[in-house]
Amino acid sequence: MAAAHGCSGSCFPWFTEVFTWITGPWMKCSSPCDGGLRYRDVGCFGKIEDRSIAHYPVDDNKCVDAEMPARQEPCNLESCSDYSIGDSNSGTPKRMSPWAILLLIILFFVGIGGLGFAGYTLYKRRKNQSKGFVYIMLEGYS
Fold first, then answer.
1. What domains can be seen in the chain, in order of their start residue?
2. CB neighbour class for 43 (10 Å; exposed up to 12, middle 13-18, buried from 19)
3. What span, in angstroms and rounded, lies between the C-alpha atoms of 46 and 18?
4. How remote is the C-alpha of 24 from its chain's centroid?
5. Residues pairing with 132 in the sheet
6. Confidence of residue 90 (pLDDT cuts 50, 70, 90)
7. How many C-beta atoms lie closer than 10 Å to residue 44's C-beta?
8. Taking a C-beta distance cutoff of 8 angstroms, is the pair 48, 36 a contact?
9. CA 71/CA 18 separation, integer angstroms
10. Virtual CA dihedral for 22, 23, 24, 30, nearest 10 degrees?
11. DSSP state of 60
12. What is the pTM of this model?
């Protein structure tokens, strides 16, 4: 609030400067699991009370240290061994369905069989090609 300090008559008002900590957004965690750290920017900013002037950065020693928000915190504390295929909301690790395993095995053998068949067909084509010349006899030119 504006106050006049020891003046009489027309004085310029004296405004109080207020200092506060302002934080930025949290950065991405340093590890997807097994514990990591995430950081954010924290800075001391000043503002003149009763004015529409935006906050402006000041030296950190102007703000109260005890009120300073955390600059870093632990994140992603779950163990990496807990992650597997399945529902990530339950606490127990999930395994792949037996039907999915069977399907993958069948697809593997079909792929190997297809490659084998293609190789055999190519081999037979090359083996059966006759090498040499082809003579075409046209009537009336002999």
1. 17-128 (2.20.100.10)
2. middle
3. 6
4. 19
5. none
6. low
7. 19
8. no
9. 21
10. 160
11. G
12. 0.47
